[in-house]
Write a structure and sequence with these properties.
Layout lengths: L2 H14 L7 E2 L2 E2 L18 E5 L19 H13 L4 E5 L2 H5 L8 E2 L7 H4 L3 E2 L4 E10 L14 E4 L3 H9 L5 E4 L2 H9 L5 E5 H10 L4 E13 L2 E2 L6 H13 L2 H14 L11
Parallel strand pairs: 3-4, 3-5, 8-9, 8-10
Antiparallel strand pairs: 1-2, 6-12, 7-10, 7-11
Helix pairs in contact: 2-8
Length: about 280
């Protein structure tokens, strides 16, 4: 190759400049077009405000809003903010009971592994579903519980969750210990204060990964429930937010986030966990 050709090639490369960096919010690589489905009047100007009840590992990776830069629901929220026209995502940590009771304010949506139920629809509007949710049973590896023995076991549940309702109302369990948050429930299980913990399969799988060899998901119950984002009741932006959710489902963004943050973190397909009756 002649020096003239080499010089011309070098000139073209210099003019082209470096490859464009991917659009990012936190550690989330954004796939949509900024402002493609705009929200003109968010709860707080210039940003998307999202509520969550922490801790929520894998879904929100971090213990405080300031420390969270990725996770399944965080990156869903980041993508929503981007497509809505904003490059700022404000995460607000709220109490679970207050969130479910509709006692929080000044937010655009809330995502915290929230199952859509008819009772909750009386208080909130919900997004289109973005995740299928069943109820899993987490036990200690040194004292496992099975499909029969759970009937007489001491079972921990989180207050005001579908897992709590399922354990008490559907299964009719009588020795149930109610905890204010997931962290307390899982700590009680590892300490031997309860025999099993019941909540969404996705959540107990994450706990198994966090404490390998100490706890394991023994089984799950099919509920037909799904996760959705909470919207303020009757808010003018809700229909637009639903369009963004649906666009992420239709273009494969939601599936890619699930593969990156859920399947990889769990180390197993939730469908391989035995279903109990």
């Amino acid at each position: 190759m002649s020096k003239r050709i080499l010089l011309a090639a070098a000139t073209l490369l210099a003019l082209a400049g470096p490859a464009a960096a991917a659009d990012m919010i936190g550690n989330c690589e954004l796939s949509g077009q900024k402002g493609s489905i705009p929200i003109e009047h968010p709860a707080m100007a210039g940003q998307l405000t999202v509520e969550v009840s922490l801790p929520a590992p894998i879904w929100w990776n971090g213990d405080t809003p300031e420390s969270i830069k990725d996770g399944m629901e965080y990156c869903i929220a980041a993508e929503i903010a981007w497509r809505a026209g904003y490059d700022k995502l404000e995460v607000v940590n709220v109490g679970w009971d207050a969130l479910i009771a509709g006692q929080t304010h000044d937010f655009d949506l809330a995502m915290s592994e929230i199952s859509i139920t008819d009772e909750r629809k009386k208080v909130h509007d919900f997004s289109v579903p973005y995740f299928n949710s069943d109820i899993g049973v987490l036990t200690r590896t040194d004292a496992p519980v099975d499909e029969k023995s759970i009937k007489s076991a001491k079972v921990g549940v989180q207050q005001a969750t579908t897992g709590a309702a399922f354990a008490q109302e559907t299964l009719g369990l009588t020795d149930v210990q109610v905890y204010p948050d997931q962290g307390d429930m899982f700590t009680a299980l590892r300490a031997g204060q309860i025999d099993a913990a019941m909540t969404d399969t996705s959540i107990v799988l994450a706990e198994e990964v966090a404490h390998p060899g100490k706890v394991a998901v023994a089984g799950q119950y099919k509920t037909g429930e799904t996760y959705g984002a909470i919207y303020p009741k009757g808010n003018a932006n809700n229909a637009t937010l639903d369009k963004i959710f649906q666009s992420m489902i239709d273009d494969g963004t939601m599936a890619k986030l699930g593969a990156k943050y859920l399947a990889a973190a769990w180390g197993k397909d939730p469908a391989t966990v035995p279903y109990w009756q």
